[in-house]
């Protein structure tokens, strides 16, 4: 099924949820529908969201969506993926055509306030970088003075690019498009000297080039890009489910809970916090309107955060992206989730 056809089906299937208001309303609408509708990137980004020829989805964004479906339904397959270009993503969320966004979109002041969105945490701490062809001999950003630079329209990367070059008295010519795919095509065709985006996205996108080894990502980072799931500010109960699903993935890694051992730990662990997390004590699932063993369903379906990162972006993937700031706080990274108590 073509992605455009899929999106049309998704839009029709959830149109009735666009005017929801009130705590619990969106949760009820999703449960009544029998599936979560999750907006992702376009299905061409290795490691984040990829749709293969057989119709199978994979990637970090996809695994997070499947985790939320497992939390709400006990079944990670009860999710419909809506592939969205960046220019359409926020409108889709505002209209109610999707229940949430799990595609690369940085947490910013304006999106949180003026656009009336809630971010349900950060699943990837990233920074804006630059992808260039090695043959240009560019080793630092100052070498891009006077360069043409590909960038996506209407994004924080476009604004960050302008701010950085103006602040540092550097000249550049923006080559603006509406998609990651067009930016990469322009870079390969020599229409621009560099492509700027989140470094994680650049590392994944580089693999899709015809000669990826001919390109390099510069070391310098010009802006923070905290990426995470986004929901409307219309149902605190749904926001809590989205947030605590993410927190659970992080806490599970911290506690050594994996897809391989979660069933055993659910019955055998003597750790009080693990007992609360996995539903043995405390009715903590009920507090979210979920089954008490919801975390067992989540971790058995997708694994903990470390497992998700490794198979999609890390050492177990073609991308080979270092964890870096996306390591647990106890290992020198920024990942830190509230405790279950």
Automatic annotation (TrEMBL):
Residue stretches making up the Solute-binding protein family 3/N-terminal domain: 35-265
Membrane-crossing segments per the record: none
Q: GO biological process annotations for this chain's record?
A: amino acid transport
Task: Give UniProt keywords alphabetically.
Answer: Signal, Transport
Give the matching Pfam families: SBP_bac_3
Is this entry keyworded Transport? yes
Superkingdom is Bacteria
The residues the entry assigns to the signal sequence are 1-21
Entry similarity comment: Belongs to the bacterial solute-binding protein 3 family.
Q: What is this protein called?
A: General L-amino acid transport system substrate-binding protein
The top of its lineage is: Bacteria, Pseudomonadati, Pseudomonadota, Alphaproteobacteria, Hyphomicrobiales
């Amino acid at each position: 099924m073509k992605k455009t056809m899929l999106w049309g089906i998704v839009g029709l299937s959830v149109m009735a949820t666009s005017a929801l208001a009130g705590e619990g309303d969106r949760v009820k609408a999703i449960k009544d529908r029998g599936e979560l509708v999750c907006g992702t990137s376009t299905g061409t980004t290795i490691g984040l969201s990829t749709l293969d020829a057989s119709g199978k989805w994979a990637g970090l964004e996809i695994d997070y969506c499947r985790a939320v479906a497992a939390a709400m339904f006990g079944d990670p397959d009860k999710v419909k993926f809506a592939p969205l270009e960046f220019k359409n993503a926020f409108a889709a969320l505002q209209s109610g055509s999707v229940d949430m966004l799990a595609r690369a979109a940085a947490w910013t002041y304006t999106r949180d306030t003026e656009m009336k969105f809630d971010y349900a945490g950060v699943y990837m701490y990233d920074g804006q970088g630059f992808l260039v062809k090695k043959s240009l001999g560019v080793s630092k950003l100052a070498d891009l003075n006077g360069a043409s630079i590909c960038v996506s329209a209407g994004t924080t990367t476009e604004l960050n690019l302008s701010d950085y070059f103006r602040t540092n008295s550097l000249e550049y010519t923006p080559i603006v498009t509406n998609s990651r795919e067009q930016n990469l095509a322009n870079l390969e065709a020599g229409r621009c000297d560099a492509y700027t985006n989140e470094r994680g996205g650049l590392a994944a996108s580089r693999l899709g080039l015809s000669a990826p080894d001919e390109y390099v990502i510069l070391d310098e980072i010009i802006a923070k890009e905290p990426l995470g799931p986004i929901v409307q500010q219309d149902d605190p109960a749904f926001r809590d489910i989205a947030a605590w699903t993410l927190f659970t993935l992080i806490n599970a890694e911290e506690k050594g809970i994996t897809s391989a051992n979660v069933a055993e730990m659910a019955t055998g662990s003597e750790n009080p916090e693990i007992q609360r997390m996995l539903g043995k004590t405390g009715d903590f699932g009920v507090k979210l309107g979920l089954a008490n063993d919801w975390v067992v369903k989540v971790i058995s379906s997708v694994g903990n955060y470390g497992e998700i990162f490794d198979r999609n972006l890390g050492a177990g993937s073609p991308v080979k992206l270092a964890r870096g700031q996306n390591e647990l706080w106890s290992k020198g990274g920024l990942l830190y989730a509230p405790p279950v108590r």
